[in-house]
Amino acid sequence: MAGIYIHIPFCKQACSYCDFHFSTKLTNKQKVLGAIEKELELRANYIGEELVETVYLGGGTPSLLNQAELQSLFDKIHARFDVSEKAEITLEANPDDLTLEKLQELKKTPINRLSIGVQSFFEEDLRFMNRAHNSSEALQSIDNAQKLGFENISIDLIFGSQTTTNEMWQKNLDTFFALGINHLSAYSLTIEEKTALAHQVAKGKISTIDDEKNYAQYLMLQEAIEQHGFEQYELSNYCKNKSYSKHNTSYWQSKKYLGVGPSAHSFDGVSRQWNVRNNSLYLKAIENGTSYFEKEELSEIDRYHEYLITSLRTVSYTHLTLPTIYSV
Asked: If you compute the radius of gyration of the chain from its CA atoms, what whole number of angstroms results?
């Protein structure tokens, strides 16, 4: 079993905390999408004859793509790879993109799971993070998706922000549980280098993160998920009724995955490789047939250490079976 990750490197605007690779200039979007499809062809043998059980469109903001663009990617994947009929097909989406019309289009594609970047249901938080959506759009997008029959939905929430009081965080949690969604990814706000947030903190325009408040909100999260019967199956991921993210779980279980697009990472069981983190350089390399990635061969000990470390992130660490040569 294996997975495919496709990185869509475009966003409407830059969130203040984000250090993922993206561009707000959409002028070369069609060319980059063409290069991504070309890379799918070039690397059709990367995972061998493994059955593809998950496809994940991340970014960036994949929900910027229209139905035709998405379907073209899926057609290319199905033409080159053996995709399970029961494959989990995830689209990361921003709430402002998920209008009723957009979701009706998505229903016509193979997408069967939505990961919605809500982050907060409060305007103060969303403005602070420079998110493109507002609170009402967050709620409406989830309602629209549920009405159209999307049953496998996850949302992201961020705690510990300078603008998020304990009362606001509790309300965010209450709102989430009231929506009847089975999966939550909850992250502590972190200040990543070279982000707008890092520059604001460095210049003294805003305060740094309050560790005590951050920890208090984490404890509130732990208490809430226990009360509502959710399982913490990974450091930042929670679900009910075993609604795990199959794609992300495959990373932690050291399964093979092919990463396509600028900055995407891949793992074939014995090595890792990562694509150049620049749209123009990626596009030029694909067009010219030159190298667009770096590669690292992993020794047996490297692979063992990675397996151990990633397993310790998850609930599966209680069932770890160590390779015989490392038994103690």
From this structure: 20
Question: Residue 328: is its pLDDT beyond 80?
Answer: no
Q: Could you tell me which residues come within 8 angstroms of residue 299 by beta carbon, excluding any fewer than 6 positions away? A: none
- How far apart CA 116 and CA 200 sit, in angstroms, is 27
Size of the chain in residues: 328
For residue 236, count CB atoms less than 10 angstroms from its CB and return exposed for 0-12, middle for 13-18, buried for 19 or more: middle
pLDDT in tens, 65-91: 999 999 999 999 999 999 999 999 999
Strand 183-188 to 237-239 pairing: antiparallel
> Please, are residues 48 and 228 in contact by the beta-carbon 8 Å criterion?
no
Measure the CA–CA gap between 131 and 153, rounded to whole angstroms. Answer: 20
> What was the pLDDT predicted at 327?
39
Q: Give the residue carrying structure tokens 């929430």.
A: 157
- Quote the CA–CA distance of 303 and 312 in Å, as a whole number: 14
Topology at the third CATH level for domain 2-252:
TIM Barrel (3.20.20)
The residue among 85 and 328 whose pLDDT is bigger is 85
Q: Any residues with CB less than 8 A from the CB of 176 and at least 6 apart, and which?
A: 155, 157, 184
CB 267 within 8 A of CB 256: yes
